Description:
This protein is α+β, with helices and mostly antiparallel strands and 238 residues long. Helices cover 27% and strands 10% of the residues. It has helices at 63-80, 103-125, 144-155, 157-164, 208-211; strands spanning 47-52, 83-89, 93-99, 137-140. The model is unreliable at 6-14, 19-23, 29-35 and 231-238 (pLDDT under 50).
Amino acid sequence: MQLRDPQLVLSFRTRGGARSGAGRKPKGRRAGVPHRVRERLLARHPVHVTLRLRRELGSLRSRLAYRAFWNAWAAVRPELGLRLVHYSVQHDHIHLIVEVGGTTGLSRGMQGLCIRMARALNRALGRRGSVFTDRYHAHALRTPREVRNALVYVLNNFRHHAIERGVRLGPGFDPFSSAVWFEGWREGRQSWPKPATGPPPVSPALTWLLALGYRRYPAPSLADVPGGTRAPRSGTRV
């Protein structure tokens, strides 16, 4: 038997082709949520959740899309294991402040909610395909200051985006949010008309932080701008 000369066996190093981690990494908003192990959540900490949706769906701030969100939540609320306390629906993303029993409860609850929201939105918009651009982002709120800031950020998020577009808003609440049910506004409880869509989709807070703790700091104002200027004490004009 003839043996092959080992010096004649050549190995060539190839380039290209599919391989793990190849390609340019996305930056900015396209980078999405990192696929890391999520932080451990405790039942006493409310959670700020952000969901980003595909832009081809159009603006979520329409009566049709907003009703789809409302109905999806109302249909699964008893079985999710999540307590939705506050929310706001923006053009291409949704902010939620929820209470959960822990990390597993949040994961299962959000999975169920996202499935039903995707079905409801696709049905309402007459389309098929994926709805969300990435995993949800979740941040535990551990201190009264964090909760107070999150309330302003979620309930007045439309003011932040209005300033980005160069739009000046007067006093008032966001109709595509749960602001109308929030009892802690600096301006006090007012007789605002409630949406005629049945029972409210939000539940009263049970955690100390979200029910009372945030009140250690100045009460949120209808004119506060998230990440920007705090409303003056004398009025509510932005």
